[in-house]
Amino acid sequence: MPQAIAFAAYGGPEVLQPTGIDIPEPDPDQVRVAVRAAGVNPLDWKLRSGNLAAVMPVPLPHIPGLEFAGTVDAVGDGVSGLEPGDEVFGRAQYAYATLLIADTALLRVRPDGLDVFRAAGLPVAAEAAYRGLDELGVAAGETVLVHGAGGAVGNLAVQFAVARGAHVVGTAAERVHQRLADLGAVPVSYGEGWAERVRAVAPRGVDAVLDTSGADVLGESVALASGGARRVLTLADPRAAEAHGVRFSSGEAQRTGPALDQALALHRRGTLTVPLHEPFPLTEAARAHAAGEAGGLDTKLVLTTEN
């Protein structure tokens, strides 16, 4: 029987427990995938803790997970271009499992050279980074400030913005400054005085600001952006967005395909960078959640079904 990790009640990481699951045959536009790795995201532990129960309740028991990499196990009638045995990665619900159903529009074939763990950690962050830059209308020659550039979303936002021909300034911990510089960004330390440090490296100001950090940065970001509040967008702080008159953007599955195409284009160029934490076994998902909630990580958390 296929296995999964689920929680039957809201609570700490310890509520994550193994469970058996039944997986149906795929619909005409779907494939069934034997999961090899699943990404772990902040939304996973926010749902598990119950912190979002008032606005995003989930039926219990609930299997977390929104991204995966694995091997096609079966294809729905009418699916073309994929067959059992193909290696794929993408976005799907209930990814903390050994088997899942995925829509073909939300996955891509995993190419040689992109390992299964980094592939599993791409879809959610890639979609968020792609969406943020798209909604801001970041164009070649513009200067964009990315808050939280050392995190999973910020890391890809830097790479996608550089690929657009933008100049990038990224706030991050000093321990990742060299990595950001290698990606083509100008790193700036976050924390008190960050705005002055940004002005020092971008004396003409910035055209747009993408906040992936959720830190208290939106007020000063509006003052920095040449387009004011309309060119500031946060992916992490809806309450502050409302307070400062800037936009908040949440996940849109339909942008996953184009976002993965952008990541794959960088992979083909040999420039895609996905810093990875040592994978946790699926059965130790609670440890992965605890590590994520503790904070301070500059690497992507993933689970593996492989021994």
UniProtKB/TrEMBL annotation:
Keywords (A to Z) from UniProt: NADP
Q: Superkingdom of this entry's organism?
A: Bacteria
The family database entries (SUPFAM superfamilies) matched by this protein are listed as: GroES-like (SSF50129), NAD(P)-binding Rossmann-fold domains (SSF51735)
Ranges for domain Enoyl reductase (ER): 11-303
NADP: is it a keyword of this entry? yes
Q: Which Pfam families match?
A: ADH_N (PF08240), ADH_zinc_N (PF00107)
What PANTHER family does the annotation carry?
QUINONE OXIDOREDUCTASE
Stated name of the protein: NADP-dependent oxidoreductase
Q: Which organism is it from?
A: Streptomyces oryzae
